[in-house]
Design a protein that fits this description.
Number of helices of chain B: 0
Low-confidence stretches of chain B: none
Strand content of chain B: over 45%
Radius of gyration of chain A: 13 Å
Oligomer: heterodimer
Distance between the termini of chain B: 41 Å
Largest sheet of chain B: 6 strands, mixed
Structural class of chain A: mainly beta
Number of strands of chain B: 12
Number of helices of chain A: 0
Order of helices and strands of chain A: EEEEEEEEEEE
Order of helices and strands of chain B: EEEEEEEEEEEE
Mean pLDDT of chain A: 90
Shape of chain A: globular
Helix content of chain A: under 10%
Distance between the termini of chain A: 38 Å
Strand content of chain A: over 45%
Mean pLDDT of chain B: 92
Largest interface: A-B, 20 and 21 residues
Helix content of chain B: under 10%
Shape of chain B: globular
Number of strands of chain A: 11
Chain lengths: 110, 113
């Protein structure tokens, strides 16, 4: 069966610090992978998606970046966090026209 | 532009009462349609989906949704709500030729005892 992992589950970081969130999937190959952000009290915003290794598309210009170093690994990064980067970050992947979400990472920037 | 609208931001129902969450979409062609539920601090769980065929689809946890092409709607229903159904519900659409999901703004459901 396919599963998706995200870590860490929660993270508290000071403004200006770097960020690295990791997402890995199991039980599939060459998945389409996505990063979403959910700010408090708001819907989901697509940040990045990837259709293959090294292939990243950005949906929203910001101080975040994404990388896909391996087929089943998707990383969300920032060199300097902003207060507005606080939120709930969800990794997702698509199979057979359905999208499945990871458990999420709660990021608080202080 | 493609969009999904959930008109109700908050809904409160009594336990045991029926529930209907509204969803309208605007797409060039009929998209794939989904309902997801998100409990506080959790990821999103798929409740049900519509691809084609029978317009009344059954999902998990006793939920169902009805696709109405004429109204561009995909409303979620449950005949009797349980306290554990309190969560946020997202209506989601995906174009049949594309890769991207379009999310509604979400409806937060509260259940009174």
């Amino acid at each position: 069966s396919q599963t998706i992992h995200q870590w860490p589950a929660t993270l508290v970081q000071p403004v200006g610090s770097p960020l690295s969130l990791e997402c890995t999937v199991e039980g599939t190959s060459n998945p389409n992978l996505y990063w979403y952000r959910q700010a408090a009290g708001r819907g989901l915003q697509l940040l990045f998606y990837s259709v293959g290794i090294g292939q990243i598309s950005s949906e929203v210009p910001q101080n975040l970046s994404a990388s896909r170093p391996q087929d089943r690994q998707f990383i969300l990064s920032s060199k300097k966090l902003l207060l507005s980067d606080s939120g709930f970050y969800l990794c997702a992947w698509t199979v057979y026209n359905e999208q499945f979400f990871g458990p999420g990472t709660r990021l608080t920037v202080l | 532009a493609q969009s999904v609208t959930q008109p109700d931001i908050h809904i409160t129902v009594s336990e045991g009462a029926s529930l209907e969450l509204r969803c309208n979409y605007s797409y060039g062609a009929t998209p794939y349609l989904f309902w997801y539920v998100q409990s506080p601090g959790q990821g999103l769980q798929l409740l049900l989906k519509y691809f084609s065929g029978d317009t009344l689809v059954q999902g998990i946890k006793g939920f169902e949704a009805e696709f109405k092409r004429s109204q561009s709607s995909f409303n979620l229903r449950k005949p009797s709500v349980h306290w554990s159904d309190a969560a946020e519900y997202f209506c989601v659409a995906r174009g049949r030729a594309g890769n991207m999901l379009t999310f509604g703004g979400g409806t937060r459901l509260m259940v009174k005892p």
